[in-house]
Amino acid sequence: MDKARKESKNKIKLKFECMEAYFIQNGGILLKKHIALSQGRDVGSGQLKLFSYKDIEKATKNFHPDLLVGCSIHRNVYGATYDDRTVVVGVPLQQEPNPTMTDRNLTEASIAMVMTHDNMLKLYGCCLENCIPLLVYEFLPNGSLFDHLHGDLASSNRMNWAGRLRVATDTAYALSYMHNALRKPLVHRGVNSVCVLLDYSFHAKLGNFGYSVSITPGDTSERWSVQGTPGYIDPEYIQTRLVTDKCDVYSFGVLMLELLTGKNPIRMLRDGRDLVDVFVSAMEKSCAMKMIASEILEQASTDEIQQIAKIALTCVAKKGAERPTMIEVVKQLQQI
To answer: Which of 48, 168, 170, 294 has the most crowded CB, counting CB atoms within 10 A?
Structure first.
């Protein structure tokens, strides 16, 4: 009995030692990222709460299956209540050190520390006492844009024209803020319909900032690994490995074509077709209206559709220099 108690105590002690080591290690990385993204300045954003692992266990009722609200190949997402606030907690499926996942999660946390915007998903805090940090987000009840265009919600509740314009404008605001709020632009690198989430009023919030990087405009010396979602990634970025704010402009243009057509860029690419190439070809043959989603044809004027298509096509120009900035895109969308 004494031996069993001793072993149990040793396990508990080892667990707490590991949690403390993870907290110190992850906290140091987070601080370095914060300093790098803010360029060493106090940018006065909201405070990021540090949750203990016990907090997370209590809020999720020890990760009870009934609280599971979503999942991906990398993590489970649990609904939870903390301080009378509904939140969601992202819990990595892998429970051993993974530098890539740790880097992505701490990048998200550091971005939350240096910037806040109404159209960016709010990160309330994180737990550093795990081998891969856990992230705690605001709860958005209406799912992702992907759900409404391609998922179960698409068949029961088609998003109307006004809703699609609102989503496009909200997302453009978020990207424009990322590109211009700090001295050095932050480039998202992962824009797609999955990371555009909808709040109670069906306003859009951009999330998934794990691939985001801070860049120096005009610097062509640094080459980056290609990150993002196939079908949305800027071909010029793939070819040159250079990251500029125009990488996001291209991805946003694909998103606009997705809103116009209702086509899934990821699925199309798997079938050997690229949404941008197909739409550009249709424009050249003067039959692009055949690609527009039926509900949009019923609700929008031909002039409105053509204006949005024109903006989208300038965003997906082959050369980044020929694409507009996100500030210019916002202005154009506001006029519509």
So the answer is: 168
pLDDT tens profile 93-152: 888 888 889 889 889 888 888 888 999 999 988 888 888 899 999 999 999 999 999 987
Residue 20 has pLDDT above 90, yes or no: no
Summarised one tens digit per residue, pLDDT across range 249-281 is 999 999 999 999 999 999 999 999 999 999 999
All structural domains of the chain = 2-138 (3.30.200.20), 145-335 (1.10.510.10)
HSE toward the beta carbon, residue 119, CA cutoff 13 A: 17
Helix, strand, coil percentages for the chain (3-state, nearest 5): 50, 15, 35
